[in-house]
Amino acid sequence: MFFSKYSLDIRRFILIKLGVNIDHIATIRQQRRGKYPDLLDAALICKNAGADIITLHLREDRRHIQDHDVFGIKSNMINTDINMECAVVSEILDIACKVKPYSVCLVPERREELTTEGGLNITKDYNKIYKAIKNLKDYNIQVSLFIDPEYEQIEAAFHAGADAIELHTGKYANLTLNYDINEELNRINNAVISAIKFGLKVNAGHGLDYSNISKIASIKGISELNIGFSIISKAIFSGLYEAVKDMKSLIHKSSLNSLY
Ligand code: PXP
């Protein structure tokens, strides 16, 4: 076995890191605006299960993650890398500069969208993005730009001063449904090669799940993958059995006790 000769530390450098996006735990909590499911508990479970990074998208409309979530996780999980997804707007970026996460991924954001739909258009919004990157880097925050796998966006990310790009894998994820993936995989692969030539770190994410992950995780040169929806969805089923059993047992215990 290759790794048996090497320390775990070497694995840390050569294996792709997993960022777990816990936004949708907050989506459930915000349905009642109560205390649970608790985001800090969720982040700790992810970390204990092997997540290298906790990813949170503080959206302008605060539909899931709230300001106190980012500050709370940052102050309670001191040895954990936090990645904040942020729109390029000063209100959110000011918060990021106060939180000082390990990294910020700048994303396009539209209120009416269900999730981040496409990558940034860096060439169009160059000045705004350039200023945001400079400001974040002044706070020692690593900045990545969420882009489609296109050469002109990669080149623009480099010129704007980004440390990293996060390639949008949403198109790949949707194509797997039609078994027509090779063209998009090539596009992603070529984007990784180009970005590395520019000296950019390459992350990827969006729509990745248990059936489509292996082809992306086999691409050489990717540093981090950010995955949310599929993990949280699977967690519902892996936890549902226990959750029902525990409730049933509490009900039975109480109803039996009431007989005495
Ligand atoms: N990366 C970015 C930049 C995103 O906006 C999202 C969605 O919030 C993800 C990764 C995770 O996508 P998914 O929830 O589909 O795994």
From TrEMBL:
The record marks E166 as: Transition state stabilizer. Pathway: Cofactor biosynthesis; pyridoxine 5'-phosphate biosynthesis; pyridoxine 5'-phosphate from D-erythrose 4-phosphate: step 5/5. It catalyses: 3-amino-2-oxopropyl phosphate + 1-deoxy-D-xylulose 5-phosphate = pyridoxine 5'-phosphate + phosphate + 2 H2O + H(+). Signal peptide: none annotated. One of its GO terms (molecular function) is pyridoxine 5'-phosphate synthase activity. Homooctamer; tetramer of dimers. This is Pyridoxine 5'-phosphate synthase. It comes from Candidatus Kinetoplastidibacterium kentomonadis. The gene is pdxJ.
